[in-house]
Amino acid sequence: MKKNIVAIGGGGFGRNNSSCLIEKYILNLSEKSIPKICFLPTATGDNDSYIVRFYSIFNSLNCQPSHIEFFKRTTDIKTHIMEQDVVFVGGGNTKSMLAIWNDWGMSDLLKNAYNEGVIMSGVSAGAICWFTSGITDSWDNELRILPCLDFVSGTCCPHYDEEPSRIPYVKKLILDEKITNCISIEGGSAMHFIDGNPFKNVCFKNNKNTYNVFLDNNDVVEKPFKKIQL
Hints:
By secondary structure, the protein is of the alpha/beta class.
């Protein structure tokens, strides 16, 4: 049984209507005619408009959408997660999201679902949460490295080309030997992992990339992954 993670660097239903290319790609991975997809908007504090946006997009696709909230009465999480084909985690404050998830035991629940073949996906906070660590702006005044769920080994940086502080921050971390490499995902692209290994960059806007950024002979190198253009 393949284990899939699709980590989106930026874009998709959370930011603009686009053409639902990445959403369809994720749903198609399930190989179900009407896959069940559950949205976790925890990182925005279960923002109502974000939830409405999710349904406005996924109700137009061949799927059965649902969501889990933690700031109102919460459903039987374990049963609901295990019934899904896809989990999609929204963007927002990663640190706060992980703290709430920790209190509800979500790490183990999601790991069990992932091991049973439920596709894990998400954007921004919902991209970095699957890695050993992620580069986050959860704090107001600076980027930081945050320990995450460790479904995929390594460090991830979303919005790599969308926010000017990201590229220099990643390079400094590598030059200072704080990390050995970073999976850096541009907006309009997503990194697809199979069984914890990089498969391909999935490009849903023109000419967007995911890079493995690392040090080679004292130079920081950005090596793009092979990509699928949707």
